[in-house]
Amino acid sequence: MGIWIKWLSEIQPLVLGCILIWAGAWKIGMHSASQAALKSALANIVSPRIAQLSHRFLGLIEFAVGWALLLPPNCKGEKFGVLALGLGFLLYLGLAKLLAPSRPCACMGSKEVPISWRSFGRAGLFFIMAALSGEAETFWLQALRGQPLLVVLAFAEFLLFLAFSPDIEWRWKKPLFSKNFIRVEDCAFAPEPLSKSLKLLKKSDAFKEFQPFIRGELIDYWREGCWRFFCFPACWDSLEAMAVFAVPIGGHPQQIRAVLVAGEENQVIKQYKVNA
Q1: What was the pLDDT predicted at 189?
Q2: Is it true that the peptide bond before 73 is cis, omega within 30 degrees of 0?
Q3: Which of 142, 176, 111 shows the shortest CA–CA distance to 7?
Q4: Which of 76-80, 175-179, 192-196 has the highest mean pLDDT?
Q5: Is the entire prediction scored with pTM above 0.90?
Q6: Which residue in 240, 238, 258, 239 sits closest to 248, CA to CA?
Q7: What is the pLDDT of residues 45-92, one digit of tens each?
């Protein structure tokens, strides 16, 4: 048993480093992370604006600690840092479950699901991994060269971490867990010009229904998997709003979704009903 604990401790800086870089890069660079922060439990505990700023600041810390774990040499500072992050995650989840039980965590992904036992399981797993990393004596790359079996253990830990992550979109995890894991959705990687998606949007019934409320040109757009999103400034009964359209890649105008949102929390005030 002792040798397995030793092996696990040696690869924790690699596993934790990759997880933190992934979480930090998502919080810093993805538009979906900024929107998730507005709807998170933290936004209910403090304020949406402070939640956004804190979310991005945490992303910078995670990104920095992640790289520190991956780069030699091993030092006590980075091990204490990742242990503090693990303890902070557990405390945040406890507070969020108490004060905003219906709000999502927005810790690793933008999927809106309430904090559950899986969220606590992931935070607990992270804390255990962080504690194990403190026992590492050998740089992870040297450990892998000396014992190739550790690659399998590291990959198994990644899969376990994903299994405990309810806020990460399933479409990214499904290829890892399904029998046909080599296959992926073609549309998620299909090249489609922005002009084509806009043309599809402009001739849709959804755009025609929302056009009376639109008060300007396109102000933002992004792509997530098989969908491309477009935002236009809008107005609803003298209230500043935003019209958001979801256009499927390689789809049809009849499949386009649309909502009209307003307020700091982006409350939905009108939704386009897709014909069956």
Answers
A1: 67
A2: yes
A3: 142
A4: 192-196
A5: no
A6: 258
A7: 888 889 889 989 999 999 999 898 888 766 667 778 888 999 999 999
Angle at 154 between CA 126 and CA 17, to 5 degrees: 55
Q: Quick one: what percent of the chain has pLDDT higher than 90?
A: 22
Long-range contacts of the stretch 33-38 (C-beta < 8 A, 24+): 33/59, 33/106, 33/110, 35/110, 35/266, 36/104, 36/106, 36/109, 36/110, 36/112, 36/167, 37/106, 38/264, 38/265, 38/266
114, 103 in Cβ contact below 8 A? yes
Q: In what order do the strands lie in the sheet with 227-236?
A: 220-224, 227-236, 239-248, 257-262, 267-271
CA distances from 135 to 58, 138, 152 (A): 25, 9, 20
User: Which tokens hold the place of 78?
Assistant: 């980075």
